[in-house]
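User: Please fill in residues for this 955-position structure.
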């Protein structure tokens, strides 16, 4: 419900402004769409494609759209060789009528975006010069070309490839999909003859307003201003001071009183109504503009300040893209994307690598995200100065009034034309600063894809404001959340760090209309998202949500002496924690045959301390009388708008204590029978028959009275080279034990000669009812490379799904442990290769942390349930397929041999440009386990009769 309300208000605030119908306000601008308004609402125009698919004949096409997605032309990715690039052009024709009374108005024809060169004719005559550049709004005054009250003909020739080679380098050879067509809306604007063309407004956090009012109004003698709510309701009149005047531009100033400033945490928006009046005081034209009051400063050697607060950008790069429609998007999609960013506790987004649809910026204004707005350039050579100056002007003039925009980016990664750096200030009344992404420029260092050790920041540029506009590249399942905990810890505590921007938001996978809708990411070029092509959430989504939580909780473990105290830090910039809420829930979990839903023992409100931003403090969770009977404690924080910040989970019971009530043997009075057949021990217990190797103690086969269960070839002690000392069978009450003892190591260090080192051992304990217990002791070392644990074989084709108690529902990497929740989860088998194959999430295969028990569901077999009594144990479920295009194996993590493994350590994952060990401490391949003489113990119980065993129920 709360999410729906957010969407409603975003739609309200981001409506078509400043354009209202004549029926509502005759002295305002009328707007008539000639195309549809977005990807989901289009209008068919006549169309001719010059080459490629469906070419050579006139037909119909949806506008707006990318013509490749309508079945025309050919596809290209920016890296394609020049000789293979499609060079088609499209001819558009559309007939329209306008009211007779528009003859008394000034009519403009507006294109929000055409790829890439556009020649426009109205009634057979050129509307103006050919426009070059795919991502920029352009318009023509066409009153003299129109037939009022009659049919008019609009013709557009859209060339996919520009006649300007610097445009092609900037836009057509970049690292993203290349499309063609009129892909953003087309409409008419009808102004009064005496009118305001546009305004540029600087609304400071103090309430001070400066406005440049651009007009065509010879009769204008006065300007008045009125501050309104976003719905048009009047709040106050603004006393206006005229401080500058020319024929086409007046500059006025005023002060609004008792306003609320804009920031991402409280994105307070207003509407400024500017009335243009004649000598008699009659209104000639009223122009309404949405504004937010906020102040931006870049203080050299210090940081980026908004409303006097130093900011840490928690940002992501984002393409304007949808798999079915390419670059043609919608307001609904913009809202969906911004809501997901806000849900991840982000506060910023970088436009990569071009200005977005205007509705995306409207949503950033209304829901609250900082924005870096960027012109499209890509590496070298840069845009030529003549066309570049037009593009900078078009960008700034369109976007100048958005409070969300803090900075302008003059291109990407060496594509900067430095002759354009000062052009932004010509059009920006707010005088926002310009950056060069990937470069040290003026006050900033926006280095891309640096190693963790660069955060030492001891280079000659250490006095620059450090905020990478791209870092932790998220190819496949690498980066993003992996490494973020380490990077963010350093960035948060670096005085000159202003945070950074992850690469990037969503996998840019296009539905290929020439391949039956097959999704294509152009290999490893566009599979970089935190979410999948349709917004499917990957594991890093939730890691980011926790690491970037504005309420930071220290790691906490609940043990016997738990006092209920948690320490926290307010990592908001503008919000006091008294405006947030937190609830504590003590829960219990059912067993493998029970419900996945937790059972509530107790719930209570947590009183958060009234901490200002950057302050630290503590709070206390009430402990109910029976708190030690709980399995877990959940803490859920919500923000001032009622949205969840994060839910932290803390196991209360140890695995052994939790499982003790669920793993009980049934007394049958009969000890398991056993015999030796060749090189195998055959053990019979209840309905179960087990076969073990007599030479290794390895489980070779499991059979029940009903079916064969394909768990075998384990436990294999990973990376283990010691020889077997002895194997023997022994009776222990009504149980049977099979014990394998390995020789003690002969590599005792000199300093430890006095220490009696233990031998590795495997102990199988079989109960009369068939319950199979396994305890493995493995010699420990202080420093370990490689895997410590055991593995089994279970053919992948025999696995149907898994239900487990532990962290989930997403897999983890050593450098991406945050973002999970401890509870019962249930996933069906899938073979997703993240970002490349399947797009089904959560991925089934991989590492899962904090295992308590798992029920493995078999195909054509009963499967089994395994209870893990050892704390901090990882489950490795099968081995994920490696992505097809990872030539340096940076995003292909290491996995131990075997299908199912129980581990004490796991591997990290890298990024497209980094190996895990270069991404911080959690990516290091070495593990530290403590004393050399303290063995690692993995204690498991296997139940192969779990569907009938009565003792394995709920608490």
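Assistant: Residues filled in for all 955 positions:
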């Amino acid at each position: 419900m709360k999410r729906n309300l957010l969407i409603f208000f975003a739609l309200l605030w981001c409506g078509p402004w400043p354009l209202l119908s004549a029926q509502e306000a005759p002295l305002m601008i009328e707007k008539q769409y000639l195309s549809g308004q977005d990807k989901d609402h289009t209008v068919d125009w006549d169309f001719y494609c010059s080459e490629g698919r469906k070419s050579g004949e006139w037909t119909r096409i949806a506008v707006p759209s990318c013509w490749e997605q309508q079945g025309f032309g050919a596809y290209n990715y920016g890296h394609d060789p020049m000789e293979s690039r499609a060079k088609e052009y499209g001819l558009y024709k559309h007939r329209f009528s306008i009211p007779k009374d528009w003859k008394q108005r000034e009519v403009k024809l507006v294109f929000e975006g055409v790829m890439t060169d556009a020649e426009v004719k109205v009634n057979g005559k050129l509307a103006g010069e050919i426009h070059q550049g795919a991502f920029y709004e352009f318009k023509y005054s066409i009153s003299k070309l129109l037939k009022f009250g009659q049919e008019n003909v609009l013709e557009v020739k859209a060339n996919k490839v520009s006649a300007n080679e610097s445009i092609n380098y900037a836009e057509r050879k970049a690292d993203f999909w290349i499309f063609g067509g009129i892909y953003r809306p087309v409409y008419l604007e009808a102004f009064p003859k005496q009118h305001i063309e546009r305004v540029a407004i600087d609304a400071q956090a103090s309430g001070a307003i400066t406005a440049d009012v651009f007009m065509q109004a010879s009769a204008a003698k006065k300007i008045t201003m009125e501050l309104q709510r976003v719905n048009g309701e009047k709040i106050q009149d603004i006393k206006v001071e005229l401080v500058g005047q020319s024929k086409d531009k007046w500059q006025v100033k005023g002060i609004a009183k008792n306003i609320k400033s804009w920031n991402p945490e409280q994105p307070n928006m207003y509407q400024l109504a500017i009335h243009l009046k004649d000598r008699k005081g009659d209104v000639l034209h009223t122009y309404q503009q949405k504004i937010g009051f906020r102040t931006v400063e870049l203080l050299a050697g210090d940081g980026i300040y908004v409303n006097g607060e130093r900011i840490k950008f928690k940002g992501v790069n984002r393409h304007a893209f949808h798999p079915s429609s390419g670059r043609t998007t919608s307001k609904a999609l913009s809202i969906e994307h911004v809501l997901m960013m806000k849900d991840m506790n982000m506060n910023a987004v970088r436009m990569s690598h071009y200005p977005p649809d205007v509705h995306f910026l409207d949503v950033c204004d209304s829901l609250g995200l900082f924005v870096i707005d960027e012109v499209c350039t890509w590496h070298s050579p840069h845009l030529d100065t003549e066309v570049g100056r037009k593009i900078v002007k078009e960008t700034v003039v369109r976007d100048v009034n958005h409070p969300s925009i803090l900075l302008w980016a003059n291109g990407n990664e060496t594509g900067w034309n430095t002759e354009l750096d000062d052009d932004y200030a010509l059009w920006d009344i707010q005088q926002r600063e310009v950056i060069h992404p990937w470069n040290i420029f003026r006050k900033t260092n926006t280095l891309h894809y640096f190693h963790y050790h660069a955060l030492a920041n001891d280079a000659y540029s250490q006095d620059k404001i450090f905020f990478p506009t791209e870092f932790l590249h998220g190819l496949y399942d690498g980066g993003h959340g992996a490494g973020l905990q380490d990077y963010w810890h350093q960035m948060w505590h670096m005085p000159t760090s202003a945070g950074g921007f992850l690469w990037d938001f969503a996998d840019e996978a296009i539905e290929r209309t020439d391949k039956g809708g097959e999704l294509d990411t152009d290999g490893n070029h566009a599979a970089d998202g935190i979410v999948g092509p349709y917004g499917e959430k990957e594991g890093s989504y939730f890691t980011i949500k926790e690491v970037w939580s504005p309420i930071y909780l220290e790691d906490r473990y609940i043990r016997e002496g738990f006092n209920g105290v948690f320490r926290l830090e307010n990592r908001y910039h503008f919000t006091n924690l008294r405006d947030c809420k937190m609830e504590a829930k003590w829960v219990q979990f059912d067993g493998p045959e029970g419900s996945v839903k937790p059972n509530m023992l107790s719930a209570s409100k947590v009183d958060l301390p009234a901490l200002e931003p950057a302050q630290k403090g503590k709070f206390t969770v009430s402990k109910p009388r029976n708190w030690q009977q709980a399995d877990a404690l959940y803490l859920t924080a919500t923000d001032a708008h009622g949205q969840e910040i994060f839910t932290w989970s803390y196991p209360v019971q140890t695995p052994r204590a939790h499982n003790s009530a669920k793993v009980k043997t049934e007394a049958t009075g009969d000890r398991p029978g056993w015999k030796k057949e060749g090189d195998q021990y055959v053990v019979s217990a209840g309905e179960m028959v087990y076969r073990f190797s007599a030479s290794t103690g390895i489980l070779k086969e499991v059979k029940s009275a009903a079916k064969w269960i394909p768990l075998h070839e384990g436990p294999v002690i990973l990376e283990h080279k010691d020889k077997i000392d002895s194997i023997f069978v022994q009776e222990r009450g009504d149980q049977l034990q099979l014990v394998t003892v390995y020789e003690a190591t002969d590599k005792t260090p000199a300093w430890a000669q006095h220490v009696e080192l233990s031998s590795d051992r495997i102990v199988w304990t079989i109960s009369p009812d068939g319950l199979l217990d396994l305890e493995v002791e493995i010699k420990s070392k202080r420093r370990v490379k490689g895997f410590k644990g055991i593995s089994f074989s279970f053919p992948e084709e025999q696995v149907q799904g898994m239900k487990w108690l532990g962290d989930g529902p997403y897999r983890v990497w050593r450098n991406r442990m945050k973002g999970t929740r401890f509870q019962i989860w249930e996933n069906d088998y899938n073979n997703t290769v993240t970002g490349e194959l399947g797009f089904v999430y959560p991925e089934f295969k991989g590492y899962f942390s904090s295992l308590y028990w798992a029920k493995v569901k078999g195909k054509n077999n009963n499967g089994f349930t395994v209870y893990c009594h050892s704390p901090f144990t990882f489950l490795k479920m099968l081995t994920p397929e490696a992505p097809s295009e990872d030539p340096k194996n940076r995003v292909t993590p290491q996995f131990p041999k075997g299908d199912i493994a129980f581990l004490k350590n796991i591997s990290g994952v890298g990024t497209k440009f980094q190996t895990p060990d270069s991404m911080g401490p959690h990516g290091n391949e070495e593990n530290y386990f403590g004393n050399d003489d303290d063995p690692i113990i993995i204690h498991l119980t296997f139940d192969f009769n779990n569907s009938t065993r009565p003792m394995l129920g709920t608490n």
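For context: The first strand starts at residue 30 and ends at 33.
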